[in-house]
Specification:
Strand content: under 5%
Largest sheet: none
Number of helices: 9
Structural class: mainly alpha
Number of domains: 1
Shape: globular
């Protein structure tokens, strides 16, 4: 097995997937509205863990691709519910950072980790993407190969979403003013709602 070329075959396309706007990015940005290093890292770690788990499940199910199609509707329904609920909370909750710290820090971080984890796992595009990789690169279906790929996916997702979360919660952006933050908050909520409804529509029509 030639490690570097094979790793590039997953790292390069996954980098493009990470940079493409989707539910994972929307959830990270939703958390970044209230600036905090712990909040940003917790949700990013959850998304990265969910992506790694999806990658592992895809490796196991690469030989039974037909069984994955049945998960699309459930995954889309769960993901849409998460996005719609997050959008609703984003609209009704004030943009002040103090409003988000009623739970203990540990409990809040755990909840944000779970939010990122479930969002990544319920994304109906995740497992098919990883399955297509394993079908194209059967050398990575071994136990060692799966471990390497899952670690690469986890590290890439964690680095990217942590950086995005910190960027949008940075003091420079927060100093842009309350009016800008309000506009960004409602724009993000509307985008999440539209994405959720579009995802459900496409799944139901496609099914």
């Amino acid at each position: 097995m030639v490690i570097m070329p094979l790793l590039a075959s997953i790292a390069l396309p996954y980098a493009l997937v990470l940079m493409t706007p989707g539910p994972n990015l929307l959830v990270v940005l939703r958390v970044a509205v209230n600036p905090s290093w712990h909040r940003s890292f917790s949700v990013a770690a959850g998304v990265a863990s969910g992506a790694a788990v999806a990658c592992f499940l895809a490796a196991i199910g690469a030989s039974t691709v037909d069984t994955i199609d049945g998960l699309d509707l459930w995954g889309s329904a769960l993901l849409s519910s998460i996005l719609l609920y997050s959008a609703w909370r984003l609209i009704r909750r004030p943009a002040s950072p103090q409003a988000s710290y009623s739970p203990t820090v540990g409990t809040l971080n755990l909840r944000l980790f779970g939010l990122g984890l479930v969002t990544a796992l319920s994304n109906p595009l995740s497992i098919p993407f990883f399955v297509s990789f394993y079908l194209a690169e059967p050398d990575f279906r071994t136990l060692w190969g799966r471990a390497v790929v899952c670690c690469v996916i986890f590290l890439m997702a964690l680095t990217w979403f942590t950086a995005v979360g910190r960027l949008f919660s940075s003091s420079a952006i927060q100093r842009a003013g309350a009016k800008w933050r309000e506009s960004a908050r409602f724009t993000l909520a509307i985008t999440m709602g539209i994405y959720a409804l579009k995802l459900l529509y496409e799944t139901l029509i496609g099914g």
